[in-house]
Amino acid sequence: xxxxxxxxxxxxxxxxxxxxxxxxxxxxxxxxxxxxxxxxxxxxxxxxxxxxxxxxxxxxxxxxxxxxxxxxxxxxxxxxxxxxxxxxxxxxxxxxxxxxxxxxxxxxxxxxxxxxxxxxxxxxxxxxxxxxxxxxxxxxxxxxxxxxxxxxxxxxxxxxxxxxxxxxxxxxxxxxxxxxxxxxxxxxxxxxxxxxxx
Length: 198
Hints:
The chain is of the alpha+beta class. The protein has helices spanning 17-42, 56-73, 93-110, 141-144, 162-172; strands at residues 77-82, 116-123, 128-134, 176-181, 187-193. Helix 3 links the parallel strand 1 and strand 2 (116-123).
């Protein structure tokens, strides 16, 4: 009698294929952010002769589209409020998208399942402003003082580049980035960029 073959592999205990695809997407996006951050950290971006023009609302919308699947997988609510007739900012749109992606990704990492991340873009008078607010655990004062330092991170697997690069991009465009946070009260990050001349 021939040798008995082992029973076929059981797949019931393996994670669904969708979970693996999500992990691949998230890790690919993370590696892309690291590579982009390193490139942006490495040198200045040269403004074209016509000047930069950035629709802050459109940049925010494209970033939220990128992270929506990640937010749903983590059961985090994403909300956005964009003011109508928002003035354009004088900044590189690709770089601004990278800044907003860093900020929204940080917020998603900070909040627990069932939490929320609220984003907004508005005319702040002398600036065009984007904000990202989360209801996560907040940042201790001693860490808050160092968050823009290159390679400083409190996240496992973090590079410490995202906020340093973001601050450099915003400052290079003539704007400013601020962070308000305290333990137990979440975090608010504000990016203010100069508007294009009328």
